[in-house]
Amino acid sequence: MYRLICRDGNAKRGEFTTVHGTIQTPVFMNVGTAAAIKGAVSTMDLQGIKTQVELSNTYHLHVRPGDQVIKKLGGLHKFMVWDKPILTDSGGFQVFSLAGLRKIKEEGVYFNSHVDGRKIFMGPEESMQIQSNLASTIAMAFDECPPHPATREYMQNSVDRTTRWLKRCKDEMARLNSLEDTINRKQMLFGINQGGTFEDIRIEHAKRIAEMDLDGYALGGLAVGESHEEMYRIIEETVPYLPLEKPTYLMGVGTPENILESVERGVDFFDCVYPARNGRHGNAYTNHGKMNLLNAKYELDSRAIEEGCDCPTCRHYSRAYIRHLLKAKEMLGLRLLVTHNLYFYNNMMEEIRGAIEQQRYNEYKKAKLKGFAEGEA
């Protein structure tokens, strides 16, 4: 259940209550695709860096180790030792981006596994069954992720199919949640709005899925090659047609700047691989932009990555030491950077929530963007 606490312009400050705890929004979900955060960060670490939600992927866990294996072991929460909310992506994006050869039919998608090449079929019912086996807190509807760019005709047909699939997802989830052996019988379902950069298709689709009274609504198919300006325009045009009293999730976005701009346009939920991926490549997020710890100028720098940062990395380790670890190819260097970056994102979301409550979001956003633009500390 979502409770809208207050608004500052279009920015929303809410609370989303689930069977695994209450999520304070806006929120950034920390991405653990295969039930682990890349960079050797454990769920114990996540507990100490303000993580509220962990996100895992249906496709990857279905391929390996198998959702039936995870069900036999008590579900994803027990498997990865995490007692807070988990959102599972439906697998749709991965089917369309990783699978290579595939056939899209009304019943679903036929494709080959990117791991061992075996033939797999996934449709709305299969995606819901896999996610039910995983027993995540929030399941995402199975949708088609159209290519960018796509013709208007292709996009319209794709969106119409996604709407039909959503109805099937909703019916299948209701059935699964009624079964005695279902681990999480209070699993929630978010629908996904598609339409590329065709705002009229987006708006019409938003109206149609809003009528289905789902637990939340996502904007999919953005940050796939269009400009930031186009993305912001689509968010601005579409969000007003999604229910205000339900959470809005912008999938796969993004940079701190993207998040700040999207919160201003009414988005509640975010996820992105950037903090972990950039950390694994030697980059740290700070209030003065991104810094590359591999640079020679940090060789004798005894300061923390960011002075005043309360993350475990900054409380104990210097830029010089982390640079040494990276140069020596020690995994600890990646772990320390990923931990810092996730904390930076989670802490920024906490600041965003406070700024909305105090009705000073615009002022906060401007100051934050100004700091990012200043460059490396």
TrEMBL record:
GO terms for molecular function: metal ion binding; tRNA-guanosine(34) queuine transglycosylase activity. It comes from the Bacteria. Zn(2+) binds at residues 309, 311, 314, 340. One of its GO terms (cellular component) is cytosol. GO terms for biological process: tRNA queuosine(34) biosynthetic process. Binds 1 zinc ion per subunit. It catalyses: 7-aminomethyl-7-carbaguanine + guanosine(34) in tRNA = 7-aminomethyl-7-carbaguanosine(34) in tRNA + guanine. Residues 252-258, 276-280 are annotated as: RNA binding. Keywords: Glycosyltransferase, Metal-binding, Queuosine biosynthesis, Transferase, tRNA processing, Zinc. InterPro entries: ArchSynthase1/Queuine_TRR, TGT, TGT-like_sf, tRNA_ribo_trans-like. Substrate binds at residues 89-93, 143, 194, 221. Its EC number is 2.4.2.29. Pathway: tRNA modification; tRNA-queuosine biosynthesis. Belongs to the queuine tRNA-ribosyltransferase family. NCBIfam families: Q_tRNA_tgt (TIGR00430), tgt_general (TIGR00449). Homodimer. Within each dimer, one monomer is responsible for RNA recognition and catalysis, while the other monomer binds to the replacement base PreQ1. Catalyzes the base-exchange of a guanine (G) residue with the queuine precursor 7-aminomethyl-7-deazaguanine (PreQ1) at position 34 (anticodon wobble position) in tRNAs with GU(N) anticodons (tRNA-Asp, -Asn, -His and -Tyr). Catalysis occurs through a double-displacement mechanism. The nucleophile active site attacks the C1' of nucleotide 34 to detach the guanine base from the RNA, forming a covalent enzyme-RNA intermediate. The proton acceptor active site deprotonates the incoming PreQ1, allowing a nucleophilic attack on the C1' of the ribose to form the product. This is Queuine tRNA-ribosyltransferase. The gene is tgt.
